Amino acid sequence: MGRVAKIARRTFLIGSAAIAGGVAFGVYAVKKDPDNPLSADLSDGSATFNPWVLVDSEKMTLITPHGDKGQGVMSSQAALIAEELDIEFGQFETSFGKPSPAYWNRAFAEEGVPFMATDHGFTAETMRSIMGGVVKLLGVQGTGGSTSMADSFDKLRTAGATARETLKLAASQKSGVPVGQLKTANGAVQLPDGTELKYTELASLAATIEPVKDVKLRDESQWRLIGKSMERLDIIDKSTGTLPYGIDISVEGMLHATVCVNPKKGGSLNGFDASEAKQMRGVKDVIEITDGVAVVADNTWRAFNAMRTISFDWGNATIPPEQEEHWATLSDSFKEELLDSTWRDDGDAEEAFKEGASFSAEYRSPYVAHAPLEPLNAIVLVTDDQVEVWTGHQLQRQLQVLVAAITGHEQDQVILHNQFMGGSFGHRLEFEHVKQAAEIANKMRGTPIKMTYSREEDFAHDFPRHISMGRGQGMVKDGKVTAIDLSLAAPSVMASQGGRANLPFPGPDSQLAAGAWNNPYNIDTYRMTAYRAPELAPTSSWRAVGAPAAGFFFDSLLDELIHEAGADPMEERIRLMGHDVSRKVLETAAELSNWGSDLGPNRGRGVAFVESFGVPVAEVVEVTNTDSGIKIDKVWCVCDVGTIVDPINFENLVQGGVVFGLGHAINSEITYSDGKADQSNYHMHEAMRMYQCPDIIVKGLENGTKIRGIGEPPVPPAAPALANAIFAATGTRLREMPFNKFIDFV
Amino acid sequence: MTEISMVVNGKSVKADVADNTLLVDYIRESLRLTGTHVGCDTSQCGACVVHVDGKAVKSCTMLAASAQGSDVTTIEGLANGDLHPMQAAFKENHGLQCGFCTPGMIMSATDMVARYNASGKELTEEAIRDELEGNICRCTGYHNIVKAIADGASKMTNA
Ligand code: FES
Ligand code: FES
Asked: What is the DSSP string of A360-405?
């Protein structure tokens, strides 16, 4: 395919977005900021300067609209505002706020454009800015794609600064001292004579002043909070059991429900017998819902117990019932009519492979469950005038739309009280559990319904990470890798998820080959082709989305080629790297891990590099081949996010990402029999437990030019680095996850 | 139905419960002490650990009736007033992310430290990792949890 045709194909999405953004609404609409949602119910004497800061005579409240699933963004968002506002932790309250277009996520646009993160050329930047306009117009609010810090960094510091400057104006009016002579610290404006005017004292006056708009952000050298380890705002309440998660919330008068939906994916409910359940103590009702049944009782335990007594007549699955058929479908999908896009085509692949390849191999990545520790739950109260929802969710505005569609209200009549989440990994981007709670509550208007999944239901109705298959080939010459060519076939996770979320996803899906096409290597021939397999089991974004699969294929293939060439895995990656920031990441990993030193017998070391969400990450894994299996000894993870906001949280997130990547690569998959998931609880999908967990050394670099998030990027390189280390230690090459199908682990 | 009575976090409680009521459900649903979490309901994750007569128990594996006459402590009752040294250690060592596993980790840890202290054995990092085999954390890389427990252990011993 010629370059122009390829670009045309890639820009399809952008094209339609640009039309929606620029032409239909006009430039003015894009420039105009959405209304401040805090203004709507502002009490007398309270001041709000922007959608993130609220001050009254009693207290200061910072709105932190990005959902906190454990990654700590509530604290980081607050810190960004506090940095410029000159307030300290302990002096303010926080709130997740109401869903609002004002909280549109500008960083979503970054991932939405099909350009490499390292591409800062005119076209790439223009497209990012157009996409930004579209996201703003649509008011897309959400937490995901490791975007929270990228979205918030300038925005929330500016929010803090504009609030500070407006409060200074108020102080100046009150005291008669010119603004230029005023200072701020500790939640107060300081006059030259040392008098302090607390922000709370200035609130009612500040409320009458037009907020200052033009501010200059402080230089890095003046930061008090950013870059220093913080004590998370939620850490005491989480350590004392006093912080309520969604599953802990009580609403006056609520009843408790649980559901059982046909475990055969997509199958209908033909009939059920709940005669015993209905007689049980505490059971209020048994209700048919979409493709399943809900039990409503006076507590959750009774609802669970009653559910176990119900017998069901389930219709057949609408997906291919057996796992083997899923793999067979992928295997048949490498064909022209299913071409999604050629995401990368450097050099001339036809020419490079005209006499065959030096090496070829096939790779597989399975379905994997999200399984955050807090099972999904939601409380919904439907009345004729409004709907209230209590749950922890990552796509607040879309939740309103989908609930309103069930209850017949307007979007704005759906009030979401967003909650702390006990983990997510992408699970809480989905809506089924909320829709089910809404369905029940709509039939019982006036009564709050708390719907809780059992762990088994949570596994059965997870939308897992997509399965994927890769076929790779390459050329080596004179001890060097000269060509790499990978084709991938997978169902589109973005289309699957977008379909359920009522957010149609046109155009190619960059996640199909994410982690494969976007690595900033300079290889003479570098071709990455994605084929879109038909949807099989419905799937959803799983921490790092496309890159855990495609990155595993790409980096494993590269490692195999390097071995084929007889080169050193680290040196050859460094030689091929075409991006300074990424090269430094690899070099630092080599240095810290003492790459090249002798490990002794039965040991091996592997390196992998995968870029995802704009973050280059290198991981080095050391293993020992023991009599009872592979022991993972130590891991080094080096990454570059441009700016690290909170070092201690950063390190914790990176270690968690590495463990998430390693654990699932070792032992976790979802498979289907008779259209049902075979795995129902943690013992069948364990990931990593504490005793298996290696030592993990983390190094965050700050050479990148843009600030990036770190929730996801450490995940993708973990699996290939481990497979490469196992190869080095044993000579066995693992091309399919989970690895414990082929080799034992200690 | 069985009538049960026990002491929970220092308070006497009494209730009529179905024979098959699990301790965790009694704690969460009847007493509304929601700091004790349920992650799996099948004894695999450790989010539900409480102390029964001073010993760590997965409260999803024990009947409420079996705790008849016992002294039960949940995460809410661990400290008297301020933070328990183990809670302070989790705070200082950033031992959590979502924190859903934390109450179970802390209750398991305090029991572990008490056992090791009583038997005079040394609580090494390896021992901490082995002891917590039954506690799943889906978020962290476990390191700060181990660090927190080691720190909490020395705080408890020197307290
Ligand atoms: S809920 Fe008891 S061990 Fe998981
Ligand atoms: S911090 Fe989330 S499960 Fe441990």
From this structure: EEEEEE-BB----SS--EEEEEE-SS-EEEEE--S-HHHHHHHHHH
Contact A176, A187 (CB under 8 A): no
Residue A595: closest CA among A405, A703, A724, A700? A724
Specify whether the CB–CB gap between A484 and A415 falls below 8 A.
no
| Contact yes or no for A415/A388 (Cβ under 8 A) | yes
- From A651, A547, A653, select the one nearest A117 (Cα to Cα): A547
- According to DSSP, the residues that pair with A677 across neighbouring strands are A672
Cα separations in angstroms, A9 against A455, A497, A527: 42, 22, 16
Whole-number pLDDT of residue A436: 98
Instruction: State which of A184, A207, A239 marks the end of a domain.
Output: A239
B108: tokens are: 């398991």
Which residues form the domain of A195? 33-105+140-239
Contact criterion met (CB below 8 Å) for B19 and B40: no
Bridge partners, residue B7, by sequence: B12, B71
Peptide bond preceding A738 in cis form (omega within 30 of 0): yes
First to last CA, chain A: 48
Domain spans of chain B, in order of start: 2-78, 85-158
> A241–B143: do the CB atoms touch at under 8 Å?
no
- Could you give the number of structural domains in chain A? 3
Q: What are the helix and strand counts (H, E) for chain A? A: 23, 27
Binary contact (B75, A231; C-beta < 8 A) = no
What distance in angstroms lies between residue B137's CA and the mean position of ligand 2's atoms? 4
Domain B85-158, CATH? 1.10.150.120
CA distance A32 to A50: 14
User: How far is Cα A171 from Cα A394, in angstroms, rounded to an integer?
Assistant: 39
A465 phi and psi, to 5 degrees? -60, 145
Picking from A391, A422, A452, the residue at the C-terminal end of a domain is A452
Instruction: Please check whether residue A550 lies inside any domain of the structure.
Output: yes
> Is residue A572 assigned to a domain?
yes
Architecture label for domain B2-78 = Roll (3.10)
- Residue A123: pLDDT band by 50, 70, 90 thresholds? confident
A29 touches chain B (CB under 8 A): no
Tell me the torsion sign for CA atoms A341, A343, A345, A349: negative
CATH code assigned at A176: 3.30.365.10
Distance CA A136, CA A192 (A): 42
Task: Kindly state the tokens that stand for A392.
Answer: 């922890």
Best mutation target, B49, B50, B142, to test chain A (most A CBs within 10 A): B142
CA A735/CA A723 separation, integer angstroms: 8
> Do residues A638 and A713 make contact, with C-beta atoms less than 8 angstroms apart?
no
Q: Do A605 and A689 reside in the same domain of the chain? A: yes
Q: Of the candidates A552, A373, A394, A538, which has an alpha carbon nearest to the alpha carbon of residue A465?
A: A538
Give yes or no for residue A8 having a pLDDT over 60.
no
Residues with CB under 6 A from ligand 2: A 70, 373, 423; B 96-101, 137-140
Structure tokens at B54: 């001073």
Q: Is B71 exposed, middle or buried (0-12, 13-18, 19+ CB in 10 A)?
A: middle
Query: Is the CA virtual torsion A416, A421, A425, A427 positive or negative?
Result: negative
pLDDT tens digits for A199-208?
999 999 999 9
Judge if A396 and A504 occupy the same domain: no
For residue A478, the CA-to-ligand 2 centroid distance in Å is 49
Quote helix, strand, coil % in chain A, to nearest 5: 40, 25, 40
Bridge partners of A362, per DSSP, are A471
Q: How far apart are CA B55 and CA B152, in angstroms?
A: 18
Q: Report pTM.
A: 0.95
pLDDT tens per residue, range A371-418: 999 999 999 999 999 999 999 999 999 999 999 999 999 999 999 999
Residue A145 falls inside a structural domain: yes
